[in-house]
Design a protein that fits this description.
three-stranded antiparallel beta sheet, single chain, elongated, 13 strands, six-stranded mixed beta sheet, Immunoglobulin-like, about 220 residues, alpha+beta
Length: about 220
């Protein structure tokens, strides 16, 4: 009997001292569920070249749409590589996004190196109601390694070269003007053009002379 009584006391003891832990765990889970919002994002970017070159400036246009039935506050945005490296961020935004509405933000940063081959994989994370919420699937963009860039424009190439795919390519033509092949005008074409012009001028002069004679005769008769 005493053994059964001790077991009952032990169970009551566990129930009393484990209650705060259960309550705390339930409270944390409930709070996290309350802070879950449904949202969608749109990411656009613009570089000086296409594709973007590593180490060059890039402008991000990031929009977040509130698909929830209640508004939420966005205090920050972070763009991260899949490895978690920060490649662009904006803080202290404190923008309220109403239900079924969209807010757009502009960020400026530097194009990072590609994460795999010539492709950069990244995610956009929003600080919503003081909690970070990231996109489920990574995005990707083509990045040209800076080590493979010889030129961006023709100005970096010789007069007989043209910038193509960030490399100076030599032009295989006789006549070059402003890094572009131009067609040469043959001497015979110049002569034929000159002769045709002279013939047309002669015909016009004859017609004018005939008209002048006709008017002169008519005026003399009157």
């Amino acid at each position: 009997m005493k053994r059964i009584f001790n077991q009952i006391l032990f169970i009551v003891f566990l129930a009393i001292f484990s209650y705060p832990v259960i309550a705390q765990s339930f409270s944390e889970q409930f709070t996290q569920q309350q802070l879950q919002f449904s949202w969608q994002s749109l990411v656009q970017f613009q570089c000086q070249t296409t594709p973007c070159i590593e180490g060059m400036p890039i402008v991000w246009q990031i929009s977040i749409g509130n698909a929830d039935n209640q508004s939420f506050s966005v205090s920050g945005i972070t763009i991260k590589t899949v490895e978690g490296i920060n490649i662009g961020s904006a803080f202290n935004l404190n923008q309220q996004v109403a239900s079924l509405k969209t807010k757009s933000f502009q960020l400026e940063s530097i194009v990072p190196a590609a994460t795999k081959a010539s492709t950069l994989y990244y995610n956009v994370c929003f600080n919503i109601e003081k909690q970070e919420s990231c996109e489920a699937q990574p995005r990707s963009m083509l990045v040209w390694p800076i080590t493979n860039v010889e030129c961006i424009s023709n100005d970096a190439c010789q007069n007989n070269e043209k910038c193509f795919n960030f490399k100076c390519k030599e032009l295989s033509c006789n006549k070059i003007y402003n890094h572009t092949c131009v067609q040469e005008i043959g001497l015979s074409n110049v002569k034929s053009s000159f002769n045709l012009t002279n013939v047309l001028l002669l015909i016009i002069a004859i017609l004018l002379a005939v008209i002048a004679v006709i008017f002169y005769r008519k005026s003399k008769k009157h």
